[in-house]
Structures are given as structure tokens and as C-alpha cells.
Amino acid sequence: MRLTNCTLRGRVALFTGAAVGVLCVAFSIVLMFALNRMATQNLTKEVTAVGELTAYYVDRGELVNPLPPIPRNLVRPVQVVDPQGKVVAATQDLQRKPVMAHFAPRNPQRVATAVVCDAVFASKGCHIIVAQQVFRNGDWTIYSAAPTLPFYVYPGVTAILLAGTVLFTIAVAYGARHTVTRSLRPVDAIRAQLDHIRSTNLGSRVPVPTARDEIFRLARSVNQTLDRLEDMFEQQRQFCADASHELRTPLTAIRAQVEDALLAPDDVDLEGLCKAVLPSVERLQAITADLLTLTRLDSGAPSEGQPVDLTRLVALELNGHEFEREVVRDLAPGVVVRGDPARLRQLICNLLQNAHRHASTTVTVTIRPGCGKGDPRFPRGVAELEILDDGAGIAADQRETVFRRFARLDTARSRDAGGIGLGLPIARQIAENHGGTLTIQDSDRGARFVVRLPLVS
Fold this sequence. Notes:
GO terms for molecular function: phosphorelay sensor kinase activity. This protein is α+β, with helices and mostly antiparallel strands and 457 residues long. It folds into three domains: 9-147, Beta-Lactamase, CATH 3.30.450; 197-301, Helix Hairpins; 306-454, Heat Shock Protein 90 (2-Layer Sandwich). 48% of the residues lie in helices and 17% in strands. The strands form three sheets. The protein has a five-stranded antiparallel sheet with strand order 2-1-5-4-3, with helices on one face. Strands 7-9-10-12-11 form a five-stranded mixed sheet. The radius of gyration is 50 Å and the shape is rod-shaped. The protein starts with 7 loop residues before the first helix and ends with a strand.
């Protein structure tokens, strides 16, 4: 089975088991190497002790051939070589054998050790040989030896380590799989609940585990996302209902006028019919254009980013329209922002139309630069566009309501002069797409809309 097709439980168990197995094998190798080293040192000491005992008899002139007396627990292959290099005594197994080695001590201790392979011993293989020198009418050399130990030294220990490695690896892998399985049970519950959530039951939420761990935070984030999705779906349903209502009104008017004309075609004044239908058509066109604009803004469609003289843009917009209300200007020169001139001009136009629609006598337009006051959105300062009307104003608890799509206050509906409830939402979306804000601030009279955009310099 390919690893990519394994479950998370299987991958964790496989990785953990493999890692533990490798560590156990490495530990076993190190332990066996240490045991081999210790056993080899002990064996070398035993071989040296045999040579020292033989040297004692050589020094006293009590040398016999074969070499005993040597205690049985110390019997090792031993040879005694005289100063002429002749073997004069040896243990029983080395009788009539040539010298087992040809090295001699060259240190003050007069003892040397070496490993010699394929020498004179009956058992082939490598042997540890210790050479010791004794001075008696010349330098005599005593060679004592023992077969080298295998790497595993003690087969029982090796078997225990091997069995322990296998059992410990299996136990750890099983434990890791069991732990991951228990840890992922809340994830399975979250997945199962998400599978059952549809657009018709967005009120359902995934279970949140009691342990405040990563899965707890995941479940909480999922529920927060579901909250936002539910709000978005609710807004979408409300938007569709409001849009249908707004479109139905002019369509109903057009249908009624056309049906009246069909009932009495001879009495129809074509010019009057067209003049009666045209306002409804213009209203449909305005709604469609605003809906298209909102769709583009919501989709994050890229817009031009270039330095724009906001003061000049507002002046052009004011000079290009005739207003029934008095317009007071307070425009600071040289306030430059970065953005799309067409979008920014639409923002200004929507705010001016809203202020003109609700003002009693005067609309005040102000542009001024300011500091960002530590706001990371305005690192180089802020450009403030303020549009104030002297109308009835907007209550504090309704200031966010006017930015909802197709939302209009009762006073606006009763004295509506063409507004469809999309101008202010479009204006706020444009401001936010340019890294700024559009809010309603306190004022002594009327409504005070304030746009804040990042300054270029």
C-alpha cells in the first residue's frame, strides 16, 4: 500500500514505530559494542595474568615443559621463547609449534598486546596475544593468547535485545495509533457534523471538545466560520428579497401603463406613454447599474492604482452638477491619495447626491489632511473628506443600518427623490477597497459623512 493512501493514524504509527525501531537497534548496537569492549578488556587482563604467572616461574628458574603448573581457570595457550628466539616451553596444545607471534614489547612496562589472525593455533581465527619480557641471562619472552570474542559476546543478551526491540517497537506503534485515534475522535465528529450541514440548516454547529487544545481551537474556528456563512446567506437572501422588491415596483408600473394602453389603443398618447414609462425604465437601469457595480466591488475586481488629487476630483464633481441646495466648500489643496479616479468620483457623487437629497438648505464639503494617529492603515497620514447636510440627521443606532443594501430609513422612504438604497453601500465598499473607511460622525445638525483614505505623501 502506498504511503500516500495511508490514514493519518497509519502514518503516525508507521513513522513512530520506524523511529523507535531504529533507535532501539542503534541502542542495541552501542550496548553490544560496549559489552564487547568490556569483555575484551577483561579477557586481555586474564591473558596477561597467565603470562605474568609463567614469567614468575621463568624468573625463578622453575620452568617445565609442558607449562603447568597453571591453574585450570587460567589455562591459556602460552609459549616461552628464550633470548635466541627458540620456543623452550609451551602449553600442551602448542607443543612442537612455531612461535605464535613475532613482536616484542618496546615500552618500559615490557608488555605488549596485539591481535593476530591465522597463527599457529588449532582453532583458526584471530587471537589476542600478550607478549611479556623477563630478564634472566638475557631477554626471555612469554606469549599468552586467547581467541578474540565475537561482536555479540553473549548470545543470550543479543536475543533479549532483539526480542525487546521487536516488542517495544510494536508496543510503541500500537500506542501511537491508539493515542492518535483517541485524539482524532473529535475531528471525526466535526467532519460528520459538517457533512450533514446544508444551506437549509446552517444553524447547526460542530461539537467543541472540552480539552482546550488544537482541536478545540479548530472547532471554535469552524463554528465562527459557520456563523459568518450563516450571516452571509441571510444577507444574500435578504438582498435577493430587497432587490426583487425594488425591481418589481418599476416593472409593475410599466406593466400597468402598457396594459392600460392595450385596452384602449386608439386613445393612447404615444408621447405621454413614453414619458410615463421612461422614469420606471430609468429606475430599472439605475438599479441594474448599481447591482453590477456592487458585484464587481464584491468580487475584488482589480482597479487602477495611481496618485489622485482628491481636492481636484471633488471640485470637478461639484462644478459638474447644479445643486438646488447651497454648497459650502472648504477644500485644502494638494490632498493626494492613491486609487481609481472613476471609483473615487463615484464615491463622491453618491455622497453628494445623498446629502443633497436630505439637506434642508445647505451642504458643506470639506477636505483636509490629517495624521494617522498610529493607525497602520495610514502610515503616511490620512485624507479626510467630510460631507455635511443640515437635514434631519440620522440617529446613532441607525448609522450602520443606512449602509445595508436596499436599506432606507422611514423618513427617506417618505420623501424619496430617486434613491434606491444602494448609493451608500457602494460608497463604503469603494472606500474600503481603497484601504480607507466611510463612517457617520456626530454633528450638531444633519448627517456628517466622513471618508478617510491613506495619503500618498
